[in-house]
Amino acid sequence: xxxxxxxxxxxxxxxxxxxxxxxxxxxxxxxxxxxxxxxxxxxxxxxxxxxxxxxxxxxxxxxxxxxxxxxxxxxxxxxxxxxxxxxxxxxxxxxxxxxxxxxxxxxxxxxxxxxxxxxxxxxxxxxxxxxxxxxxxxxxxxxxxxxxxxxxxxxxxxxxxxxxxxxxxxxxxxxxxxxxxxxxxxxxxxxxxxxxxxxxxxxxxxxxxxxxxxxxxxxxxxxxxxxxxxxxxxxxxxxxxxxxxxxxxxxxxxxxxxxxxxxxxxxxxxxxxxxxxxxxxxxxxxxxxxxxxxxxxxxxxxxxxxxxxxxxxxxxxxxxxxxxxxxxxxxxxxxxxxxxxxxxxxxxxxxxxxxxxxxxxxxxxxxxxxxxxxxxxxxxxxxxxxxxxxxxxxxxxxxxxxxxxxxxxxxxxxxxxxxxxxxxxxxxxxxxxxxxxxxxxxxxxxxxxxxxxxxxxxxxxxxxxxxxxxxxxxxxxxxxxxxxxxxxxxxxxxxxxxxxxxxxxxxxxxxxxxxxxxxxxxxxxx
Amino acid sequence: xxxxxxxxxxxxxxxxxxxxxxxxxxxxxxxxxxxxxxxxxxxxxxxxxxxxxxxxxxxxxxxxxxxxxxxxxxxxxxxxxxxxxxxxxxxxxxxxxxxxxxxxxxxxxxxxxxxxxxxxxxxxxxxxxxxxxxxxxxxxxxxxxxxxxxxxxxxxxxxxxxxxxxxxxxxxxxxxxxxxxxxxxxxxxxxxxxxxxxxxxxxxxxxxxxxxxxxxxxxxxxxxxxxxxxxxxxxxxxxxxxxxxxxxxxxxxxxxxxxxxxxxxxxxxxxxxxxxxxxxxxxxxxxxxxxxxxxxxxxxxxxxxxxxxxxxxxxxxxxxxxxxxxxxxxxxxxxxxxxxxxxxxxxxxxxxxxxxxxxxxxxxxxxxxxxxxxxxxxxxxxxxxxxxxxxxxxxxxxxxxxxxxxxxxxxxxxxxxxxxxxxxxxxxxxxxxxxxxxxxxxxxxxxxxxxxxxxxxxxxxxxxxxxxxxxxxxxxxxxxxxxxxxxxxxxxxxxxxxxxxxxxxxxxxxxxxxxxxxxxxxxxxxxxxxxxx
Amino acid sequence: xxxxxxxxxxxxxxxxxxxxxxxxxxxxxxxxxxxxxxxxxxxxxxxxxxxxxxxxxxxxxxxxxxxxxxxxxxxxxxxxxxxxxxxxxxxxxxxxxxxxxxxxxxxxxxxxxxxxxxxxxxxxxxxxxxxxxxxxxxxxxxxxxxxxxxxxxxxxxxxxxxxxxxxxxxxxxxxxxxxxxxxxxxxxxxxxxxxxxx
Lengths: 526, 533, 198
Prior knowledge:
The structure holds 3 protein chains of 3 kinds. Chain B is mainly α. In chain B, 70% of the residues lie in helices and 3% in strands.
């Protein structure tokens, strides 16, 4: 049997993007081995190009008709394509913002990128994993790489503490998750493919058993850890504070997106029998995340901790889309993740730049930054305001779509809590903006007063600048020119058979919006 | 059919935004280039606005004109649909005039001028957007768009307590605007067909209970902004702390956004709920007038006193909206326009005073009339307009509201009498606090703060700004048709619609709620016949 | 009940007792070396259970990997670090312990109820026995091919990560003089940051 035949049988083309990322990873590693430390001039760009090519391949697979590959291990359907794209792009944005950061700390860049790419591979496989063993292995690939990245600044006790905390809590949650899926395996009589589990459970007459509910609870605990939903969020602030900031950026976007991809696939295809229960549990988690994330963020003094709590709150908003379970709900979640990718990474890029210049991330130290670095102030303000949902920035449209979908499906309470907590969130986001913009020259912090001259020609500064500008432009314009993204998001949902077969939370109040006829002058005469 | 027409409203909304884009790239840190650039952008915008309305707006058509509609994000039903009618067109012009003059009044802004002018231009766009939006979601977007610029303008260039005032402003307004979005969602998803188009939403038939809830939601949202007692507490802080040009816009335009919202959403779209809430509006209006007038008297800060006087004046708007007569409704609109001009003038002049004396405390001021006769004259004229001296626009507005409400056949005579007497008490209070303000600030011997050598009178630029506001005030006062003709057609139609709602409910009450304070006669008879013209 | 079944039940009981006893020892003993050795006991008893279930390969893997590799590594770690530290006893520690015990027993009760209440579908196919090895191999190269291959990436990364964490860093010239700041986060610690100038 020749190779081509084999790969056609396995439909191996579906994992081509992951293959490209793995090859990039190996190239980075081997090149570093050959060239030594000076490889840092090339490796990051090789990695970025590899990730972008992988994204391009994902795009080419958009219209694929045969998504199942590797005998059911992997499902490259449209929703997985979009999540894999989000994860790949988030890695592609994380790399340029990390070059200078890693260089300045003296750690080696090539290994950093290798581990980051492995995490990306894990996340991408997790988005498409359609079978329990595959889910677990890819989840662990993502998690273990994340632990390593968290502890990358190995002489810093904070980094060590963060890594240890993350490792312990992560391992515990993995164990709980594993217990949950092993129950699923048992209940279904030895099925590991998600699509087959439900049918077997029904045929075994276990569709109302206690075991299924416990499996669900354990699985949700594992997922909630990954997306940092309250009350499984305790690791987040400490880990975010102690980790290298680029890693935090990746964890808050890439890893979170992977968690949501896992949640969608696992809950929708393996737990349709208890969909009321999981919606209920997730509703509770979403409410807790939105309220606690936003309220605790008010009291933070460190920028990284602020963003940590903000990311908890954002996870709560995102869960609205998952809970309502309509087409619009899923696509609003996907849309918000796409927007969130850029605004959050943009925010982190700005925090990194500020840290590199001044060596601090306290919010107080940002006072008066407008006088010294208007570009950084503008970019950070735009990203934060977008996270707060201020029009006409991208985040406003993302939130509107989520709330719209929630209201359409009748989740009035969730939408109201979401709205109220977004008003609270405006307060702490604008507090940072205020600190940067409003302070008079005499109130400037010491860090800003001693702000060094900008040296864009240092290694790794250009890529950082480029990614800040890209994030800034995207965050400002993606909302106003949102149509392509909207089409991508709705397309990914309508093309995915798994999501089309499920029933939404409640009977949908109204049909999908129809194109309105243009009001004419004649028709508006009273 | 629309493609042949030039999209004037889109241009009017986008022009300031586009003009704001190159500002960060302009040279000059001290603001000369920037201020001339922004001022010319504002002037171009204002003259384009006048030209567009002159050419395309037909005063005799009550409905929407200059309609434009483009799908923006069809997935959530968001359309870029704009139009103006008699309710919005005068307010668009008002915001154009006030904002352009505010730009001219920003000469003293030396700190971070580029940011200041950028934010002013964004606000310019947002105001016009609010008045012209025909899509609920677009309305909400524009409404929210104005939040952050105002916040930053107050927080950056305001007075002592600016951070507190700015934060209070943004939290109040953002919390209030939740209700707009919720109501928009609820109305859009109501029934079978989904739409955010205001026209279509107004035509939908809702159950009365639903309309009442929606009415309440809008009332809360606009009540924060208008403001209505007891949601007003942000306003004195924001207005008194804001720099003069921003106070001009805040008092001159932003409050009118709420009045416009009440007319557009509550009265026009929810006309079935309006009869139930109208007496509440009238009572709230009276409370506003009496409470704010009394409180104004106790203020020592010049701008705080004027802020409370704004609250009192917006109370009249509420009574006008509640009146169910053409005269009352058009009086409400006239009051909004006239207060926009008067408040802008007064806040500007107090800014002029502050610039020279560096205090707003009336105890410290005094005897300025000798040194600054021009400012004194202009200030007096503005105050007279504000206390509704005949011949000024304030008088016409308040008079037609009173006449409209008294002649309204929708209320019982007792209720009308109580409302009118209390509101008239407010009218009597306003000269007391305004004249005492004039006395303390301008008459008597020069106080320490004023006795600065070299205290100059108003410069020509400042006099010009004040005159630009006072001339329309006197013009409207002498010849009210100047303003009323722009919206008469619409207010007549609007009142007819509101009375329709009244008579429908009178004939077949859908809820077990007695219409409070309503005249028993009108409830039985055909309301149509009594239309007061 | 024939002899084979009797032996099975008795060995199940013995193994279960051993497992519980050793794992309690791991948790409760103060001396960490004892704990580590007892952990080996836990692993061995688990592999005994696998043998009882006719899963010879898994049992062998359990002993090879967990006892032979993981546990020995843990022991190495403990012995090499060789740091005796006396912890001051926490006040009112019994409260925390009692709460933990209650939660654990609650969870245990819930899970055992679930296990007992569920009518588990038990495979009726023939027991693979010693042929299990072949079956597992077939699975690895058919329907579990992808996770199997992905595990190799995972292992590669774990290898690299271990090296990164363990190796001595050879720093570029320009960084040697500032050894305090090398390999740490660029953010200063909170107590070192300044406050805004008044």
